[in-house]
Amino acid sequence: MSYPIDPDKLLRQARALAGIGAGRGRPSPTNHRRAVSAAYYALFHGLNLEVVRNVLPAGALDAELQHASRWINHRDVRVVCELVSVCAATTTPTTGIPKGLSQRAEPLWEALSTTDPAGGRVSAVPTNLRFLVDVFPALQAARHAADYDHLTEFPKATTIGHVEDADEALARLRGGTNDPYFQRFFAWVLARATGLVT
Prior knowledge:
Elements: H1 7-18, H2 29-55, H3 62-69, H4 74-88, H5 106-111, E1 113-115, E2 121-123, H6 127-148, H7 156-175, H8 180-193
Antiparallel strand pairs: 1-2
Helix pairs in contact: 1-2, 1-7, 2-3, 2-6, 2-7, 2-8, 4-6, 4-8, 6-7
């Protein structure tokens, strides 16, 4: 019997380790570190599963989804999030590619922007996707510190903030799966993971 990684169970573990709902008191620093790590991995695996669900044919088996989700690595998701974040920040009409994007990312900019009546293009990235692409790299950095930086401290409030960010990002991710802009984001993540774009 297999027990695939379940983002919701990771999130429950993160809440418990952070002491959410436990009342007063302070869980151990080790629990806080594990909570931050579990929160990040909940978002990472949840995002990967949504990417492959939206790209693989309908009716794909759970085992096929789990296998395909392993194509996607942490760096690829972070890089795409950072590119989408640049697109999202371009709120005034611009001609050409926004500063911070390379020529290779021009198709992504075109997929995530719209023509402005005054000329040029402006971001069309929805708020929920913008939240996701901003939270993911921040949680990844926090997870890296939690796992490897002996000097970084994770007070209870900070830890709970990271867990709540992961929870909110997962909710927005799942609520946006039918949004064409989320679907373009999913496609770009998979394209990068499989080497179709760099």
